[in-house]
Specification:
219 residues, 10% strand, 8 helices, single chain, 5-stranded parallel beta sheet, alpha/beta
């Protein structure tokens, strides 16, 4: 079983990926690999998600567009590498794997996204509306790398915090539509995630999807 987790930063992709790893899945973390490359390239103290977030900064800061473009370039390289690894198992089924994508995966090349959909069941971890304010507050307090693609706009006389809040919520809505189009399966899991984690909360909808797909393909 191959799974790719998509969704906004903070919805639990890395959390669930780690727990799938504990039951035998091979984990492919896009942020980890992007972070290591940026740490070498930019001289960051480490390649963790918070270090990447501080490097990228907020969308109103000078140089943000250039940093955003570099991040997306590295993301495309990393995802391509992961798909190469997943697909290169000649003569035998690939081991179970989970790709922990970034929140900006929807902005990558359409051909690469088609390849992702062929290689894995794409699962969208959707944030319920009542949790979206918590995602915004988490972003404000501990910036994560968020790709805006020009969607941050300050109205006249609007201060930066108000503009950030308004535009972030609009960004979540726009991304929600794109995530749903990309996903095979959309589920809402508790945010914050439960402890202890039950991987079945994620795997059962995937198994149901695979069964229904197989049934539909059977003459």
């Amino acid at each position: 079983m191959q799974i790719a987790l998509i969704g906004m930063s903070g919805t639990g992709k890395s959390y669930w990926s780690r727990h799938l790893g504990r039951i035998g899945f091979t984990c492919y973390s896009c942020d980890d690999h992007i972070g290591r490359r940026l740490a070498r390239e930019q001289g960051l103290a480490d390649g963790g998600i918070e270090a990447i977030g501080r490097w990228m900064g907020f969308p109103y800061e000078p140089g943000f567009a250039e940093r955003e473009a570099r991040y997306l370039e590295l993301e495309e390289r990393v995802l391509t590498r992961f798909l190469d690894e997943m697909e290169n198992s000649p003569g035998q089924p690939p081991p179970a794997g989970v790709i922990d994508t970034t929140g900006s995966v929807i902005y990558l090349d359409d051909g690469l996204l088609d390849r992702l959909r062929r290689a894995a069941v794409v699962v969208y971890l959707a944030a319920p509306p009542e949790k979206r304010q918590a995602l915004l507050e988490g972003y404000r307090k501990r910036p994560r790398p968020v790709i805006w693609r020009g969607r941050f706009r300050r109205d006249p006389y609007e201060d930066k915090p108000d503009a950030l809040a308004r535009c972030y919520m609009a960004l979540v809505d726009t991304r929600d539509r794109r995530y749903r189009r990309l996903a095979h399966v959309t589920i809402e899991l508790p945010v914050p995630a439960p402890a202890p984690a039950d991987p079945g909360l994620l795997l059962e909808p995937v198994r149901t999807y695979l069964k229904e797909t197989k049934r539909a393909a059977t003459p």
